[in-house]
């Protein structure tokens, strides 16, 4: 097909992009494919701001392909559906999370674990098989294959519900997979940011006892009074940390920067499980003596498959769980990123895309 014909199949889109490692976002015109037979087009209403957006903007992981439009906590309304689309119709409330494609045939895809497909296509900073580039949700619209679109439950707020599409599933999936949902068991949540505060809420809905382990003493009263945690440990307070030695069944570690694991492993009981979800730009050191001596387990987890993401949204709708958010305009995004880098957000920024993004 000629280049002109290819271009004719594109449509205009508008968002905010970073063009270099400074990570500074500014207005950006680009194109998206026309809605195909399997596709759903969304008018984007809200988009959450994940710490992974910040890692990618600043090229923390070394594979950012500029220009990059971040955003993978996307909520909107379907404006167009292709002729083979059965699950959605124009006007539906819909969501898009961390992925927009996979091979659909491998073992992972067949087991509803598309998030582990070797050919996964991420929502942004990725390319499609035809070489075209993907841009994320800090933008006016997006075109996505129906398999990677979610029904957004009616009773979930569109703005505060958006962060569930990454933060929510990223903490829900390991809790289910690693068997961390037994009521009455004790869960530690390390790092009280976007992922961490949703983990507290979901864990309380499972009936767990929850202790937040944080580097920010000023978050204590909110953790307990607003988010529902049972107790709070300041990670830099050795006496408090020591008093909690061997008290936890599980820990979910959401810290975004390199940090020692030994203090967390010490908090676990024998047979305890630590799941690391944070993606610091440097490897974490794994002390093996406490693992061996206490038959402890350290695992990882990467958001979740489409079926489980829908299950998580429905679970959150049933239990009235949404994020605590700071709603911002798109032109406040660079300041928000500075604050996110300093763990200064209560507890997720969400961009009011529809009311603040204009050419
Ligand atoms: P966030 O909102 O910035 O929260 C991270 C929290 O970590 C901060 O609020 C802070 O909590 C703590 N923290 C940050 N720097 C720290 C330091 N130097 N020492 C100790 N604690 C520190 O980020 P997020 O959006 O929740 O994401 C967290 C991490 O998970 C990021 O690395 C992100 O890329 C990754 N992630 C992974 C997946 C996955 O699928 N596995 C999905 C999404 C995100 P306190 O103030 O309480 O200490
Ligand atoms: Zn994310």
UniProtKB/TrEMBL annotation:
Q: Which UniProt keywords apply?
A: Metal-binding, Oxidoreductase, Zinc
Q: Write down the Gene3D superfamilies for this protein, in alphabetical order.
A: Medium-chain alcohol dehydrogenases, catalytic domain (3.90.180.10), NAD(P)-binding Rossmann-like Domain (3.40.50.720)
Task: Show the GO MF annotations.
Answer: oxidoreductase activity, acting on the CH-OH group of donors, NAD or NADP as acceptor; zinc ion binding
Cited InterPro entries? ADH-like_C, ADH-like_N, ADH_Zn_CS, CAD-like, ER, GroES-like_sf, NAD(P)-bd_dom_sf
Concerning SMART domains, the annotation shows: PKS_ER
Pfam families from the UniProt entry? ADH_N, ADH_zinc_N
BP GO annotations: lignin biosynthetic process
Cofactor(s), by name: Zn(2+)
- According to the entry, every stretch annotated as the Enoyl reductase (ER) domain falls at 23-351
Q: How does it assemble?
A: Homodimer.
- Homology family: Belongs to the zinc-containing alcohol dehydrogenase family.
Q: What is this protein called?
A: Cinnamyl alcohol dehydrogenase 9
């Amino acid at each position: 097909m000629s280049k002109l014909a290819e271009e004719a199949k594109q449509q205009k889109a508008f968002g905010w992009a970073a063009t270099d490692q400074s990570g500074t976002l500014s207005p950006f015109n680009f194109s998206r494919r026309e809605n195909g037979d399997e596709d759903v087009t969304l008018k984007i209403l809200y988009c959450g701001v994940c710490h992974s957006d910040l890692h990618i903007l600043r090229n923390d992981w070394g594979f950012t392909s500029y220009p990059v439009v971040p955003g993978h906590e996307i909520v909107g309304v379907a404006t167009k559906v292709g002729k083979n689309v059965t699950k959605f119709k124009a006007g539906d409330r819909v969501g898009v999370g961390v992925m927009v494609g996979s091979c659909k045939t491998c073992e992972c895809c067949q087991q509803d674990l598309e998030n582990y497909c070797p050919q996964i296509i991420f929502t942004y900073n990725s390319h499609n098989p035809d070489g075209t580039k993907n841009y994320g949700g800090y933008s006016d619209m997006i075109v996505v294959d129906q398999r990677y679109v979610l029904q957004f439950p009616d009773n979930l707020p569109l703005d505060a519900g958006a962060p569930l599409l990454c933060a929510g599933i990223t903490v829900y999936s390991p809790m289910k997979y690693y068997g961390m949902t037994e009521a009455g068991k004790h869960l530690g949540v390390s790092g009280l940011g976007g992922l961490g505060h949703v983990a507290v809420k979901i864990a309380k809905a499972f009936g767990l006892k929850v202790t937040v382990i944080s580097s920010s003493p000023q978050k204590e009263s909110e953790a307990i009074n607003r988010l529902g945690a049972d107790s709070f440990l300041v990670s830099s307070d050795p006496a408090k940390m020591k008093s909690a030695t061997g008290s936890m069944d599980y820990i979910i570690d959401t810290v975004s920067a390199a940090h020692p694991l030994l203090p967390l492993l010490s908090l676990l009981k024998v047979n305890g499980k630590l799941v690391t979800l944070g993606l610091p730009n440097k490897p974490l050191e794994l002390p093996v003596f406490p693992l061996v001596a206490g038959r402890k387990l350290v695992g990882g987890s990467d958001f979740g498959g489409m079926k489980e993401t829908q299950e998580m949204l429905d679970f959150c709708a049933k239990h009235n769980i949404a994020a605590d958010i700071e709603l911002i305009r798109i032109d406040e995004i660079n300041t928000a990123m500075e604050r996110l880098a300093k763990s200064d957000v209560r507890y997720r920024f969400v961009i009011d895309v529809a009311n603040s993004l204009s050419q």
